[in-house]
Amino acid sequence: MIEILTPAEVDRARESGALVADILQTMRSRATVGTNLLEINDWTREMIAEAGATSCYVDYEPSFGRGPFGHYICTAVNDAVLHGKPRDYALADGDLLTLDLAVSLRGIAADAAISFIVGESRPEESESMIEATERALAAGIEAARPGVRIGDLSHAIGSVLADAGYQVNTEFGGHGIGSTMHQDPHVPNVGRPGRGYVLRPGLLLALEPWVMADTDRLRMDADGWTLRSATGSRTAHSEHTIAITEDGAEILTLPR
Ligand code: MG
Question: Could you tell me the CATH superfamily of domain 7-251?
């Protein structure tokens, strides 16, 4: 089912999106050398509770994970890219950290992800990979407006990633969002223009380009959740939730 939100629901989505952005920026500022991933999980749990919101992750039990996730944020380090389950690990200088967070506030969910380098090191290849996912995300958002199709967004995202030299995995991509975190339509990170569902005002989409440096293949950790690059190469992921408006798209998960 594809959900079209009322203007009042989109207003609530703005609040959910602002909370997701606020938590992610707070965690980014606290994710320094020595910070443990389990601390990031605890701080996230506290901020969600303080806001009166609900975690979309803690009880999440999809077909692609083993049992309930049991945590409040995804923390993926270096070669880990998706569904990174927080573990007892202290961040080191130069680590590439991806944080992915979805919460529901007053019944509407928002979802966003950021990748960044921890500490003072600035590994050039990692920075350019992060920047490629950010540019792909911006291109997808730029393409989004009423009347265009999902394939137009997918094509815009995938073209940036391909031009930057990355192979694109098509197992996981963006998605509709609203009363639940993951819903139709699926938004692959590769696509053909003019194909797929036609966007309309009130549709919420989570767009999420992600790449691995030298492969499009994933492998899963023994935790049954964390997905890493098959080669051990570094990875990056950028995500925003957007609302389709009358004449374009509004990013709901920008920091205020
Ligand atoms: Mg998502």
Answer: Creatinase/methionine aminopeptidase superfamily (3.90.230.10)
Q: Separation of 226 CA from ligand 1 center, angstroms?
A: 15
Angle at 112 between CA 116 and CA 174, to 5 degrees: 110
Beta strands in 69-189 (DSSP E): 74-77, 80-82, 96-105, 108-117, 174-176, 183-187
Cβ contact 57:71 at 8 Å: yes
Spell out the domain ranges in the chain: 7-251
Q: 38 alpha carbon to ligand 1 midpoint, in Å?
A: 21
Distance from the CA of 22 to the center of ligand 1, in angstroms? Answer: 17
Ligand 1: distance of its center to the CA of 154 in Å? Answer: 15
Distance (Å) from CA 112 to ligand 1 centroid: 6
**Residue 117 is which amino acid?**
I
pTM: 0.97
Q: What is the pLDDT along the chain (256 residues), one digit of tens a residue?
A: 899 999 999 999 999 999 999 999 999 999 999 999 999 999 999 999 999 999 999 999 988 899 899 999 999 999 999 999 999 999 999 999 999 999 999 999 999 999 999 999 999 999 999 999 999 999 999 999 999 999 999 999 999 999 999 999 999 999 999 999 999 999 999 999 999 999 999 999 999 999 999 999 999 999 999 999 999 999 999 999 999 999 999 999 998 8
